[in-house]
Design brief:
Chain lengths: ~600, ~600
């Protein structure tokens, strides 16, 4: 049976000791989260995750969601767990106080979500998607819509969904066919089929608010003719209570590789009543609001499965007795040594551990930038924060999910044959993690977003701001001898990243395929550089603690060793990415379609 | 619904045009396989795979194997398919003519097995394991045992299994507890529990021959006290017909991540009658005979899933219309371009295609060396062949399965969300491929075998022979200008491999953990170098054809482009592996157990 223990000490190290969250104590949101409150919240979240959600993870995988007569039943225990989540007020954590939210920073939100997702990724998607719907309504809904619907999403009484994909279109939403016909009362009749709708139908909440992309009759072709609609499962009576069932029904629950506990639905809209959100034909803008937040949320899913898988593999490697160390017996009193004595087992574990801690720092730092982009009273800070949030969102989404999956696979490998047996739980981490590389924009799309859109925005302002932040750190850190391995690695990675960026500037304008061919390499080059930067910040914080009269010295010593592992063994990948980027598109585009 | 088409043209290119199999026409085995016979055999094997086995692949995954009252039922259609396989004489393909075999080279055997495994990996394991049992009996059984049992294995009337693993021991067989008590009649009573026994119990054949590792009462501790026994499911009467049911029963069928169509069994031995194979306490030697052959067979499973997944992803990328090329519409008459226009989609497909073709060459070349190590009348050739077979077996096993799995994952990615839906079949390729990295010695064990045993054997004779063969090729190929990119890449890879080998020689003696820490990197460094060598041989063959008055020019042109992709985009990985190897064990061993 797999286990999960929330890494609370890690969160405290990041929030308090690395990013010094108390420096923002005067800002909205942060003001309500002094350090002791933060700690108390995280402790409670850990309990919820470890004691309520994690025990349901394998049950959810085994039972899946069942569709009978249009009704979807979630796995045993999910209803009660969702009730506990709602009663604890968790859906309100980072929501706007105007609608019942607690208004805490999203840096805390992503930490909460990492715990929930590590404990039970499929379950975490139900409140996760509600939050996406909440964001779209908050930013684009009318005052009336917000007043009517947001409090219910914030309390968790109702859940939400995002309806983009249709059978013939996913990435290219311009092709979508779901149509909306305006009615005399200002509402629309929505008709069409949506697929892959996570949490699309279930028995956890009284109502479901579907946010649906559709094309108003007569609207332009392509993405310029797409509008966003709110389609509640149950329409509301004038007093706000639940009225008639709307014309949306679940046609099927998909049989997927993983996240069986989440109902992935085909939703059929048959003249369903929908309400326009934002302006007609401006649906894509509203959808992007939802997607950017959702992408950080998917990035953390990759991390979450890597963390859960790592914890179990590390425990297994300490327990499993098999063979002897290459340098002579280490547990001579036992029939064999624990497999943790083997360097290659440590390699697999440390790949995950060093990644998890660095990636978590990047996730929290990015979310913090998202918070500062709204909350800061300094325009320079807001601009930088906004730039980082935009630039790093695709990096967090794709780098954390590609690596998170790979780490789950390596953790499974530590278990040997036992990792392939479902009851041990490692296979589920791998199967669940796999989806995060695909949904909310497949990772190849994230890479294109990074090189095609984010790099170029505002004349490259964001990427140069990133370099400058790194350079400022390097100039300062160069004075600390003990930081030398980090300074060396970060300088090298930064140099490779800059060279790759320049290469695109010189070669992608004339032939955009040169950007496409190197996009995934560039994304991971960026990811490794950003994580190396995070490790450098953490190493600095750890060294300062060790130089002071720190308690808990062993924590900081381990932190430094883990960072050294990352910068020595992982950071050198950047040279390979750069070499591949410089090859350009020619070897890829030389093939005709019939040569595949 | 997934499809599969056997790559017959590829096999012909390898056997006839790259490795010039006709040069061995005078040797035993090869003598019976003139080119037209080989082609006819491969055509028939393709039909069997495409028409009989592939259509059962998803059924097998969905239904799995069921255990009821000790009887295991295989998925619908498996019995009939197995009958077809037996009637076609396929289990006899590479078996000894003295026992009813056709005696053909194993180079043909691995090609047959690749097709079967691409079509239906779970099914292919039933005859695959029989062949392992056949090998152990052939090399270590008494004349009486061979005469009694081999013809039934060769015909496929009976199947075989390998019983190594116990709940508390897998890699470290020295810990095994299954005991054997000698009886007055020369037989033994076997008692114990074996787990993870592939094809351990099923309804395909009349009898199952279990080859079981056990410890004779009073034998030494550890691997020096292990013996190999033959334990038939049904004992034989004096006339050779089936007699009493033996004391072995299936206690459970494991619920696994994949290969559901193969029954992975817990086998309980309760005073079962067993017959010693080989000498008492020499069971490990006999087991290694089985395992070396089996490891090539597992390597090809990695390739097989990569090939099947690639074929489907390539077809999907040509059909799926979504978005437009970065360089302007390519299918302006359609609502969108096929996603094959995108460089990043091509990257995923070409990673698989270039790997598959190069890895297949390595597989066939290695199997051919295995053939020559027995069949050649030249002692120098036999020594070289034997060295290559030993050296490359762990490389083929681990490199082909690690990469094969990664390619299946990338092929799944090409499908976007549709890749995560089970009915489209891509998830199954990923789930099935996953086991090949684990069983027959987890890939980390292969890496240790390579650096700890194979490199050092005979004073490094094998690896130096490999370098010499590469150097001979480079000296010759250096004269051909069109081979320049291959010569450059192969020289660079070879240099990195040599530097890594030297680094081990200088640093691993004093601290074996330095070899362990770099072992997996070294294995892949070797794999990439070997595949680069294979691509160089194929490029040379293709260029010769193009320079001549070849028909089928487009085949050779595509071959060259695919090879260029590999040497330009994949081969440069060797520098990263070398850099990591040179870091050594320190960053891994610096951690105490409580720091994980």
């Amino acid at each position: 049976m797999p286990v999960y223990k929330a890494p609370l000490r890690e969160y405290r190290f990041l929030l308090h000791e690395t990013f010094n969250m108390s420096q923002y104590a005067a800002l909205p949101g942060f003001r309500d989260a002094p350090l002791d409150v933060v700690d108390a919240i995280l402790d409670e979240a850990a309990k919820l995750s470890e004691e309520v959600l994690q025990p349901l993870n394998q049950i959810g995988d085994r039972e899946g969601c069942k569709l009978e007569n249009g009704v979807v039943t979630t796995p045993k225990g999910f209803r009660e767990a969702y009730k506990t989540l709602v009663e604890g007020g968790w859906p309100a954590l980072v929501a706007d106080p105007a609608f019942g939210g607690q208004g805490l920073p999203n840096a805390l939100g992503v930490i909460f979500n990492e715990m929930v997702s590590s404990a039970n990724m499929a379950f975490g998607m139900y409140p996760g998607l509600s939050h996406g719907a909440y964001s779209a309504l908050l930013h684009h809904g009318t005052e009336e819509q917000k007043k009517t619907y947001l409090p219910k999403l914030v309390s968790g009484e109702w859940t939400g969904t995002m309806n983009l994909t249709e059978p013939h279109c996913g990435t290219d939403l311009g092709l979508l066919r779901t149509k909306a016909v305006p009615q005399a009362d200002g509402s629309y009749r929505i008709t069409g089929t949506k697929i892959f709708i996570s949490a699309g139908e279930h028995d956890l909440a009284d109502n479901i608010l579907h946010l649906v992309l559709a094309r108003v009759e007569g609207a332009p072709q392509g993405i310029k003719g797409i509008s966003l609609f709110l389609v509640p499962k149950y329409l509301l009576k004038d007093d706000g209570s639940l009225g008639a069932r709307n014309g949306v029904s679940c046609g099927a629950v998909e049989n997927k590789m993983g996240i069986h506990g989440n109902a992935t639905c085909v939703l059929n809209y048959d003249e369903a009543t929908g309400f326009l959100v934002g302006e007609e034909n401006k649906g894509m803008r509203a959808m992007f609001t939802m997607m950017n937040e959702a992408r950080l949320g998917v990035g953390l899913q990759g991390l979450s499965q890597s963390e859960a898988a790592y914890q179990n593999a590390a425990a297994y490697a300490k327990e499993r007795l098999q063979g002897r160390s290459l340098t002579g017996p280490k547990a001579a009193d036992k029939p064999a040594d624990p497999i943790l004595v083997h360097p290659d087992v440590r390699r697999m574990l440390l790949n995950a551990k060093a990644f998890n801690e660095g990636a978590r720092a990047l996730l929290v730092w990015t979310a913090l930038q998202g918070d500062l982009s709204h909350a800061s009273d300094d325009a320079t800070v807001r601009e930088f924060a906004d730039d980082m949030m935009a630039l790093l969102t695709p990096v967090v989404k794709a780098h954390l999910t590609d690596r998170g999956f790979a780490n789950a696979v390596e953790a499974q490998q530590v278990y040997g044959g036992h990792g392939y047996i479902e009851e041990n739980g490692l296979a589920q981490f791998v199967r669940d993690a796999r989806i995060a590389m695909i949904y909310e924009g497949a990772n190849g799309i994230q890479a294109l977003d990074l090189v095609g859109r984010k790099l170029a925005a505002n004349g490259g302002r964001a990427v140069f701001a990133f370099f400058k932040r790194v350079d400022d750190f390097l100039a300062e850190a160069g004075k600390t001898e003990k930081l030398a391995p980090f300074v060396v690695a970060l300088s090298a990675a930064r140099k490779d990243l800059e060279a790759a960026t320049m290469w695109f500037m010189e070669n992608a304008l004339q032939n955009p395929d040169n950007a496409g061919a190197g996009s995934t390499d560039y994304l991971h080059l960026f990811g490794v550089t950003a994580v190396t930067f995070m490790w450098s910040l953490m190493a600095k914080a750890a060294l300062e603690k060790l130089d002071g009269a720190a308690e808990d010295k062993s924590f900081y010593e381990t932190k430094l060793k883990t960072g050294l592992y990352y910068v020595e063994r992982v950071a050198p990948e950047t040279a390979l990415y750069l070499a591949r980027i410089r090859i350009g598109a020619a070897p890829l585009m030389a093939f005709g379609a019939d040569e595949f």
